[in-house]
Design brief:
It contains 4 helices and 8 strands; from the N terminus they run αββββαβββααβ. It starts with 13 loop residues before the first helix and ends with a strand. Helix content is 26%, strand content 41%. The radius of gyration is 17 Å and the shape is globular. Strands 1, 2, 3, 4, 5, 6, 7 and 8 form an 8-stranded antiparallel sheet that branches.
Length: 158
């Protein structure tokens, strides 16, 4: 069902893909939007080692929610800042693309717990995290991308 990577020599192992998902703070979630136009949005995320799902948060209404309710398939792309080899001008970038289906989570306690875990990617300030959860939590919906296929690659931009 899913295509094999055309440039297999550039493929990175699944463990490296997961590390990229765990360490990078943002990626682009793409869904099928209004009138079947692709809708890609930059979004922060949390990769959960326990269940292998990728979690996102957002409001309880809007373009993203409407798109997911209409069609649950999505792709998510994350890439790192890249690096240059000594004496070389070309940038080497690792990226991962995950295809899967999105589940909406409306259990309040689970939303709050996952929101805390997502927040720790950005800060360990407990006071700030709890303040945000108390103020924004009631209007928050959590999404889980359940991976069906994942590929990653290292590209030398030359």
């Amino acid at each position: 069902m899913f295509r094999k990577m055309a440039r297999a020599k550039q493929q990175i192992p699944e463990e490296e893909c997961i590390e990229l998902l765990k360490n990078e703070k943002r990626g682009v979630l793409s869904v099928l939007g209004d009138d079947d136009y692709p809708y890609g949005m930059p979004i922060n995320h949390f990769y959960n080692d326990e269940d292998g799902k990728i979690y996102f948060h957002g409001g309880k209404s809007g373009h993203k929610v409407d798109a997911v309710l209409r069609h649950d398939k999505a792709s998510f792309c994350v890439y790192d800042q890249g690096y240059k080899k000594d004496g070389d001008w070309a940038l080497n970038i690792r990226s991962v693309i995950v295809f899967g289906r999105i589940e909406m989570i409306d259990d309040v306690e689970k939303i709050y717990e996952l929101s805390r875990r997502l927040s720790y990617k950005f800060t360990d300030d407990e006071g700030y995290i709890e303040h945000e959860i108390q103020n924004s939590g009631p209007g928050t919906l959590m999404f889980a991308l359940v991976p069906e296929h994942m590929t990653g690659k290292l590209v030398r931009e030359a």
